[in-house]
């Protein structure tokens, strides 16, 4: 895995552009972490609009998590299919709900607020359909713990900054970033990365020529140099 270069400069520039580190934790906080865990499971491999559509449809169709846990699986699949959800997510949601109820006696993960972050990560990633990224979202946004979720946008930016090798998996990148980025900046910088990946540093046709981070970005520098050479 490549060295993390110019970390603070990059984080500071992203913050000057998007300002998410200044936003209070209450902007993202779920009183019940289980709600956000289920929402995050729904978000896997889909966009926020479809995720929210599926979550709202599920809440309209069932009055409690107990009803969701005990629903006919094919019926639950039909409810979630309206938003194009994969067939594995309904099963994983029911399995998670059952496991949480068995462990804590209720459909609640509030007790995790008294656990250490390593204990939370170990427990959440033991649940069906929950990997390090999903766990880190709950840790970071609901439990005020130092998790740094890595999705496709953050993986892409990490590779372009030279922080990760091209063949590094998101899980491997997350492990590296959590070890080396300043933990007090995790939540806001994660959101800044997302905003930059969605608005400018896109997978296709990134706006390198107008990006103020290009001075720290080998990818952008190579791309602009190539464009200049083509124009000769």
**What is the 3D form?**
globular
Number of strands: 0
Largest sheet: none
The mean pLDDT is 93
Supply the helix-strand structural class.
mainly alpha
Account of the 3D structure:
With 232 residues, this protein is mostly helical. Helix content is 58%, strand content 0%. It contains twelve helices and no strands. Helix 5 packs across helix 6 and helix 9 packs across helix 11. The longest helix is centred in the middle third of the chain and has 17 residues. The protein starts with 6 loop residues before the first helix and ends with a helix.
Chain-wise SSE layout:
Elements (H helix, E strand, L loop, with lengths): L6 H12 L14 H11 L4 H14 L3 H6 L2 H9 L6 H17 L12 H8 L7 H11 L9 H9 L9 H11 L5 H14 L18 H13 L2
Helix pairs in contact: 1-11, 2-3, 2-8, 3-5, 5-6, 7-8, 9-11
Comma- or semicolon-separated keywords:
globular, 232 residues, 0% strand, mainly alpha
């Amino acid at each position: 895995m490549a060295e993390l270069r110019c970390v603070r400069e990059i984080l500071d520039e992203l913050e000057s552009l998007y300002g998410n580190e200044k936003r209070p934790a209450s902007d993202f906080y779920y009183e019940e972490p289980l709600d956000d865990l289920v929402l995050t499971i729904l978000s896997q491999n889909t966009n926020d609009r479809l995720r929210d559509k599926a979550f709202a449809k599920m809440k309209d169709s069932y009055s409690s998590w107990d009803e969701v846990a005990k629903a006919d699986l094919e019926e639950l699949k039909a409810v979630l299919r309206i938003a194009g959800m994969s067939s594995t997510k309904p099963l994983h949601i029911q399995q998670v709900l059952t496991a949480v109820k068995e462990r804590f006696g209720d459909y609640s993960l509030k007790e995790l607020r008294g656990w250490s972050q390593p204990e939370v990560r170990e427990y959440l990633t033991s649940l069906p359909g929950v990997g390090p990224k999903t766990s880190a979202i709950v840790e970071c946004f609901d439990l005020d713990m130092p998790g740094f979720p890595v999705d496709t946008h953050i993986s892409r930016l990490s590779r372009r900054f030279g922080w990760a090798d091209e063949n590094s998996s998101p899980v491997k990148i997350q492990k590296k970033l959590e070890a080396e980025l300043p933990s007090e900046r995790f939540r806001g910088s994660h959101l800044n990365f997302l905003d930059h990946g969605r608005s400018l540093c896109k997978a296709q046709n990134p706006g390198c020529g107008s990006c103020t981070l290009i001075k720290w970005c080998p990818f952008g520098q190579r791309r602009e140099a190539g464009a200049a050479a083509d124009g000769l």
